[in-house]
Amino acid sequence: MGTKTSDTIKRSVFTSPAEVEQSFYEALREADLNKLMQTWADDEDIVCIHPNGERLVGSQAIQASWKEILAKGPLSIEAKIPVIFHHGMIVIHTILERHYFATTMGQKELLCHVTNIFQKNLGGWHLILHHASLAPPDTALDELHPTTSMLLH
């Protein structure tokens, strides 16, 4: 990847991509920006694409976007139905995110297709890409295939 970031975020040492992903979603549920940024790699080539959003590259842009989002409070998101690809020091998770939010007409739900890519280096596993896209309105969780793990060679 590219150059390291110059910010003062102390990166956590994660022993698996699943541990990174769990911490990422916990941070969203807790609206904890520092915990969220600890899941990201210490690299300026990291990328985040929010649903209907632009491509954000680098720690500063990603942190600024999440700061704005989390300023509104915790996010109620569940990660469901992962398909996992292993390729050496890179692991790719494609998942379905279920977002819950309150409206004047009661609680609503929104589904997003998400790709999270993790890389392992001397500092453990970290997130290098989070890409979320709105799922079609007729997407149903029960129609999607169960958890799958694939080894790429």
From TrEMBL:
Q: Which residues form the SnoaL-like domain?
A: 22-135
UniProt-listed SUPFAM superfamilies:
NTF2-like
Q: Where are the transmembrane segments?
A: none
A Pfam family (short name) is SnoaL_3
Alphabetical list of InterPro entries matching this protein? NTF2-like_dom_sf, SnoaL-like
PANTHER family found in the cross-reference section: NUCLEAR TRANSPORT FACTOR 2 (NTF2) FAMILY PROTEIN
Q: What is this protein called?
A: Nuclear transport factor 2 family protein
